[in-house]
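Chapter summary example.
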Amino acid sequence: VGIAVAGATDAARAAADIVLTEEGLSTIILGLEIARVIFARMKSFLTYRIAATLQLLAFFFIAVLAFKPDEYAATTPVPSFDSPNWPSFFSLPVIFLMIITLINDGTLISIGYDNAVPSKYPERWVLPIIFMVAISLGLIACLSSLLLLWWCLSSWQPGSVFQGLGIGGMDYGHIVNVIFLKVAVSDILTLFSSRTAQEFFFQRKPHPVLFGGCVFALCLSTLLSLVWPCSVLDGVPVCGLGYGQDRQKIALWVWLYCLVVFII
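The structure predicted for these 264 residues follows.
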């Protein structure tokens, strides 16, 4: 590899593979560090993209096939005024899916500013490991969402988890907003896990741009889940968690649940 140092002649510059624009050879080391930082950010981007996509696709695929809300309404003491709202399969309105996707993609852009640590060794793509890490993160988030959905649908059963926690039975519109909040928060928190590779999430401080973007996305998701008007979207009843007696506590409970899953 031909290298032309700063101040070299035009002929040397034209013949060289690499042209140094500053004095000394330290710029080569700096260039390698920058390249490895970029590579680390690309791995974080790919890991998070796979994990987030897997959580969304796997969760809704399984939820549509395995959970039948109307059967839960028929076998549990759901109030008569709400039981007609329980459909034959679970789904989220399209607008909710669009909001989750837009928030995730908008937050993901900020990973280009993250405080990535350059590797001490030459980097190369090891896709099996990247896929294993991403699948692990996505499956944990997916399984926790399915578990929460089951708890919500069975909330009217005596002795259920929600009855034991004092939350009580939930209207179907509130259940939809709970799942919207859970999926949105889990997706964003997964970004913090995917950016630190083999380290714990708290061992590497995120860049202020990344941290600020995540905080904004989390606040926006929580706000929408609280204040969304009670209505019917795409045939699915929805109702903000801010409406109804003591329903605001459910948002706090979902947040605590997401944090526990995130730490795990």
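To summarize the output: The beta strands are 3-4, 18-19, 231-233, 236-238.
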